[in-house]
Amino acid sequence: MAKLEQEGRTSVLDKGLLEDGLIIISQCKKETGDIWHAHFGAAAIASYFFIKENNLPPDVERKVIAQASKMVKKHTLPYSKNEQKRSDINHAERIILESLDRTIDQLHWVGHNVIYAALSLLAIHELRCCVTEEDIRGISELIVSFDKTIPGRSWLGYSASEVKKLDIAVSDNISEINSAEQLSEFVLKEVAAFNVIYRAESHHDLIAHMLTFSHALNILYDLGHVTYFKRGIYPLLKLVKVLRASRDIEADSPIQLFSPVDRKPLEKSTRNPHLPIELGFWINENDDHDWDFGHQFKFPYSFYNHMNRVKEVDELSVEKFRYLVKG
Hints:
The chain is mainly alpha-helical.
């Protein structure tokens, strides 16, 4: 167990969540042949940092840790602990960034290549490495596997191929973004601009992944990888541009829906009366729907990380966030 200082008080936070998260991410491709089980590893890492970065009440911390630990236990992957030498941080970072170099310039699965890479690097730094060559290779192979994949599968107003071909123009009225603080301010304003949010992969899920993708870029910025941060802005803005077309749509709008899972008429998302920093949000165990595929930890971590970077809190963005998360 690791002691954590938070504004003058001491809390207990288990770094095992970071280790377990890295195991799931590193073993994902090998054990499942896919990219999605790594969601749960990313969520475990997110749960740790959500607690670390926010001055949560002790009862909320305990609930987050308990649910994250339960999620990890349910979704752990086979892993053989051996006597391999642990790699150093610089080596692990170099290999993971080399893998990300192949995919960061385009939008792949709404940014999960960047999300997995950034959260892995953040955990590795927090643990002062603690990964083997095999672990690094697994993370690297997962990130490389995003090469030539689609931007995402569910969209409003654009097909996946149209999203891929999108350009960002002067008429899009987007100011240059050069720092993590600027990016956080930008995406929070984008969230606040939605007049209606639908519970659909093509809507609330994309809005929330705008938060997590941009947050992943900010992590890279924080770790000193500013070039990667800047390269990732362009694919992120493609996602932003698509979402701007759906800020005010009606449920039965004639706007085209491209999705294998969403159906019209779209259903409005329900307002959550509790925020993730409140106990009420964590009362339900939520294992029946797999903690919203891990998003119950990922979305709050990203949103509050953005909030912690801006000078003034926009209450409208907080209000809109209530429609993005289940409790």
